[in-house]
Amino acid sequence: MGEQRPLFPISIEGKWGYIDAAGTVVIEPRFLSARDFSEGLAVVEIAGTSEEDRAFKRTYEGFIGPDGKFVIPPQPPAGIREIPGYDSYQYSDFHEGLARIHVNDASGMDGWIDRNGRLAIPPKFHSYGDFLEGLAYAETWRPWNRPGSQKRGFINKQGKFVITNNDFRFGYSFSGGVASVSMTFKGDDNAYCLIDKQGTFVIPPGVYARIDAPENGAAVVAKNRKVGMVNKRGEVIVPLGLYDQIYGPWEPGKGRVFVAEKKGKTFVVDTMGKEVAEVPHPGHVSRFQEGMATVDQKGRYGYVDETGQGEKVSGTNGT
Predict the structure, then answer these.
(1) How much is the pTM?
(2) Could you read off the pLDDT of 94-111 as tens digits, one per residue?
């Protein structure tokens, strides 16, 4: 069986579907919203059909496969529907066989489902990241008006903490053995650091004003309003100020190239900090996903690949 061709969301007259890299509509637009495919599944949203659903304008999310058919139906999984005060839910994308589910009740807790749509980790955390390299950032939940201990750090797929630091405030996913974390440091509640899987600092807090989510061990850093890049050892691979802006890929843990802008020109940069190519088409280039990035040329859209080339740049945006 051949490798599945990448599909990209597209909106036509307010409905969402998918096209392939050649611009051919593969899944007819019929959803209220649609997200990118991840591990062969994509989150889509439909309107509820019951009288109560219509009265409260309820919508439901589920996962479709590349044929457009639901693999995980548009309804909350068992265990979520039984939560008192439950109102609605939201899915994240699949990563390493698990997808985060956010419960929109008074707690706002997060859990994870497996590819069968069953709860693998019950909703008992606040989380902002996805599982990559076996770990995900999470915080234990407690009511905001009730004091008490609260763990912060990274959990494994059994829902157990393996890295804890209560000075953490936010953590990106691991990639290349490192993760960017925001933490409290010397009175700053948003000090960034880079850690390894033992929780040891690779780059301690206070060195950079910002460290973005790493991709295959490379991360964009910022200081004094200048951006650069570092590798998983914390070594500089793109000096601060060489480019005006640098954007990492959308795909956590799968990105191979970054988009860099300098003096009105756009370049493709790899995870070693080397320029791969200059994008010949004028216009804003988005972050890369599935090896492609969109190019916005004054409201007209197309795609370029990781070499900076693209045949569909003159295509329309479908509206």
Answers:
(1) 0.81
(2) 999 999 999 988 778 999
